[in-house]
Amino acid sequence: MIIRVLSENTCGQDLLKAEHGLSLHIQTGEKKIIFDMGQGPCFIKNAKAIGVDLTEVDIGFISHGHYDHGGGLRAFLSVNQKAKVFINKKSFDEHYSLRNNKNIIYIGIDEKLLANNRIMCINGDYKVDDNLEIISKVDVKDEFWPAVNNNLYKSVSGEMTNDDFDHEQNLVINNNGKSYLFCGCAHKGIVNITEEFYARNKSYPDYIIGGFHFDSKSNENKLDDNMIMEIGRYLLSTQATCLTGHCTGRSGFKILRRIMKEKIKYMAVGTQWNI
């Protein structure tokens, strides 16, 4: 499997551009996949710069209904004419973020895209084929619910309520005898999501890939360092190799790195992993 980072918060290459977002190009032996699509066209420009042809993508996934993961969906649909994009139907609900403890900002994705016949709206768990599976239903233990979620809301029947992330979905890929767990932001908690994988498979994934939601754009309600260390010890115990970035934050990554050593690596724009 080859994973190329098309959108992420950091970048070390002059010809590429970073943004607060996430987009990964995944190439298995059978399929070319896009997992999340950043804020907008930025991931398309980065893809072109590193030689990734998005017209050849076979299938797309959006992890949840926030602009920094699904904002580039319209741009992708205009570039690629064949891929179906799997997204939880509740991702098109209204989602908001509280910034600086006073300003409510809309952070959802364009509901007009629902009319596109390549948008595959699903509700909960879904098996795409023998090697691709979507996990949405996660048994949440409150101690591993990210504190950063406390600033995130959704509108239900015109009333603002705390987001429970029933629109979040995680992608499992089985390839050449290995299992890969992809999460966009792990809003339900990376420990909870990984334990859900274990409950279903009686084993841990070989790789865990995505953001772990220790940090936020508003820098409010960051995860406590002690909790990050506890999560790091847990992830190390699974023996999975982790590739992370975006909402994990650089400071959170450094803490994990001290505990996990070579079992965790950072995904900046332009990096490529052959795993």
From TrEMBL:
One Pfam family name is Lactamase_B
What PANTHER family does this protein map onto? METALLO-BETA-LACTAMASE SUPERFAMILY PROTEIN, METALLO-BETA-LACTAMASE SUPERFAMILY PROTEIN (AFU_ORTHOLOGUE AFUA_3G07630)
| Record Gene3D superfamilies | Ribonuclease Z/Hydroxyacylglutathione hydrolase-like (3.60.15.10)
Extract the GO molecular function terms from the UniProt entry: transferase activity
Superkingdom per UniProt: Bacteria
Q: What is this protein called?
A: 7,8-dihydropterin-6-yl-methyl-4-(Beta-D-ribofuranosyl)aminobenzene 5'-phosphate synthase
The secretion signal range is none
Q: Where is the Metallo-beta-lactamase domain?
A: 25-84
Q: Which InterPro entries match?
A: DHPS-like_MBL-fold, Metallo-B-lactamas, Metallo-beta-lactamase_dom, RibonucZ/Hydroxyglut_hydro
